[in-house]
Fold this sequence. Notes:
This protein is an alpha/beta fold. The protein folds into two domains: 8-139, Up-down Bundle (Four Helix Bundle (Hemerythrin (Met), subunit A)); 153-348, 3-Layer(aba) Sandwich (Rossmann fold). It contains eleven helices and 14 strands. The chain has helices at 38-46, 53-68, 76-91, 98-113, 119-151, 178-187, 204-215, 228-233, 259-268, 300-303, 345-348, and strands at residues 8-11, 17-21, 32-35, 160-163, 193-197, 220-223, 239-242, 246-248, 253-256, 273-276, 282-283, 322-325, 332-335, 338-341. A seven-stranded mixed sheet has the order 6-5-4-7-10-13-14. Strand 5, helix 7 and strand 6 form a beta-alpha-beta unit. The site of 5-S-methyl-1-O-phosphono-5-thio-D-ribulose (MRU) has 19 residues, from helix 2 and strand 9. The site of 5-S-methyl-1-O-phosphono-5-thio-D-ribulose has 19 residues, from helix 2 and strand 9. Pathway: Amino-acid biosynthesis; L-methionine biosynthesis via salvage pathway; L-methionine from S-methyl-5-thio-alpha-D-ribose 1-phosphate: step 1/6. Belongs to the EIF-2B alpha/beta/delta subunits family. MtnA subfamily. Substrate binds at residues 51-53, 94, 204, 255-256. The record marks 165 as: Transition state stabilizer. It comes from Bythopirellula polymerisocia.
Amino acid sequence: MTQPIPTLHWQGDIEGTLVLLDQKLLPTKTELVVCTNVDEVWIAIQELSVRGAPAIGIAAAYGVCLGAQVALDTELQPMQSRIRQVCDYLAESRPTAVNLTWALARMRTVAEQASDCNPRELAEALLAEARAIHAEDAQMCADIGRHGADLLAELPVGAGILTHCNAGALATGGQGTALSVIFELANRDKHPRVWVDETRPLLQGARLTTWELMQRDIECTLICDSAAAHVMAAGQVQLVITGADRIAANGDAANKIGTYGVAVHARSHGIPFYIAAPTSTFDLSIANGSQIPIEQRSGQEVVQGFGTATAPTGVAVYNPAFDMTPAELISGIITELGVILSPTQERIAPIVHPGGKK
Ligand code: MRU
């Protein structure tokens, strides 16, 4: 069985709404959030009702369509200036995933290139672009799954695969990136046994990845993040695969906090560590990972994440939401255009292009 409710979808025409599956509440509650204005989309992204690099890009693109609604009865120029303002605003909702600014740049281009049309026609073009970003992401997920499963064709049946955070259908417009590879391996009767890091502090692994894997009847075992090295040492992990939020020109990759530690453990146990990500996750404007902005989130997520206090009141907390895995620890990056083994700038440049696909 696949995910019963879509991660996000647009309902209606240019005057429609953005409907999100509220990921803050999963897996105990399955509720929808209906966004009718830009502020609600900004909050949904910031508070992680919608999360995962590709999904927040798609949500922001639809958010621009909501922002356009208030200028439908004006002229083209006020509409364009409204779109500029909405794009700037939504870009501030989260800093690390480049898919957000990538999607907003596409929406901005549609608005800037409009001429000889009225606001309603521009709104139609914006909605068509948001829908295209969504549909292309779904296709990229499928292609990533296929390329990843081809790469791993020699993996033994029943191999242990460790993943961190959630890079599945909940994080994308399709069936995921890292999880797409795992789903495709399962489709090819490889019977992967997945070790799921719980992913402190917001438990995307425990709450979301296990939920997705169990819906598809894929064998999975939840572990505390701190158990990853132990299961590797016990010979239970043949491969690690995660998603990414931003990949620099040299292949350094930011992903959920804890990914770097997993990559270090994998290297020290001789286990291949792969990143699966669409080319929209690459940021070729930055040379290396030291320039990737790392989101800092509230300490409350660490000391009182799900309602119960777990540390003394007033304790100082440092809560970076992401970390950066250096390219030398990455065995390969699985993209929709193919696999970049042992990524370097020289290997990435021929495949990934600044404006998207070649
Ligand atoms: O804070 P989150 O839940 O948005 O973090 C998500 C991740 O780190 C994912 O691994 C990444 O966005 C890739 S999703 C295909």
